[in-house]
Amino acid sequence: MKDFLKLLSKERPVGTKVNTELVEVLERSLSEMGYTVQSLPFNCMVWNKGVSSINADNQSITIEPNPFSEPFNGSGKLQLIKTLKQLENIKCKDDILVLAEDMTRTPLQPKNYPFYYPDEHRTIISLLEKKSPKAIIAVTGKNTLNGQNPFPLFEDGNFLIPSGSIGEQHLKELDKFSRLNVPVNLVIDSYKVEAKSRQIVASKEAKKSVGKIIIAAHMDSKYNTPGALDNAAGVTVLLKTAKSLKSSVYDIDIVPFNSEEFYGANGELEYLKLLDSESKQIALMINIDSPCHKGSKTAISFHNLSNPIEKIANTLIANSPKMSKGKEWYAGDHVPFIFRGVPCVVVTSSDFFDGALEYTHTPMDTLDTVDFRLIKPTAQLLTDIIDSLSAREQKRRFEINR
């Protein structure tokens, strides 16, 4: 499994050549374990970028194109906006808009993101499209949900205003250029191309099934990161769990989600369509995301669990020295299932919010971040949870038929 983790730990956004190759590796591995593998094709976008900058007053400031941004090469006056009220009142059709402070506290969800699209984000994006500036420069800082600094305000191929992000240390310079009221030159070297990818689902059916258990871990990465912790480690735990499962009463789906890091979540949507067409009861969904960080334990959190399942899980965690009870969190492939009322177990690192996130979505997310010794006990705990649920169901059947 250590060799497999090394194989996975490379930049692999959905639709790219590396991503395609790894889908094939996972497909072969799961087939060899005796699973029946379905392939669900979908369309996506692959993004490329070059050097981007603002040029004014004989100086050049490098900016980061926002992922999937439209390209831009032109000039315009800067207008600086710090509040939603300012945006509501501004006219900026022929200008380059600089967003800062209240407008750039957190990344904006992609337009009409299927699982979570807050009204505040919808309002900002709708206003920006209505105001229609030539381009947008977002002054951002450290992302609270990963290690990116500056973070991209937009990551959305459906948002067609060219945009880039720049660190907070440049706000005074941009403010100065805005006050001078003279044109600046802006280059956003960014382009996207249509691509195809697929979501694989590996299944085993029980002879007398009482429901389905889903075990998942997203296999794709962001751009510019090897994604070892997020989430090559999770996929490695997923495969080790898949190899040892022997449930005889639950159907099992092993799902290496492909596009969790993509603005369209296409693979997740295809799998949800498949589930809806089957109309099978989901007894449990387990999602594995960024586990096995060095210096941490494996954290297990619960959502929508019934008392008997929660009792089983708590007992197993208490008896496992490398496991701990984790906080509930709502950013990952388990979220659509939580919203549907499905019982969910979420697996991550115990220092996810105060350590591991410093590395995710950055070039620092290398194999050095992963504790290989945690992979086996984490997979064993998940196997034990499923085995305990199966034994409980078999006992219930026995007592009914006695």
TrEMBL record:
Pfam families: Peptidase_M28. Residues 201-382 form the Peptidase M28 domain. SUPFAM superfamilies: Zn-dependent exopeptidases. Signal peptide: none annotated. InterPro entries: M28_fam (IPR045175), Peptidase_M28 (IPR007484). This is M28 family peptidase. It comes from Kineothrix sedimenti. The lineage of its organism: Bacteria, Bacillati, Bacillota, Clostridia, Lachnospirales.
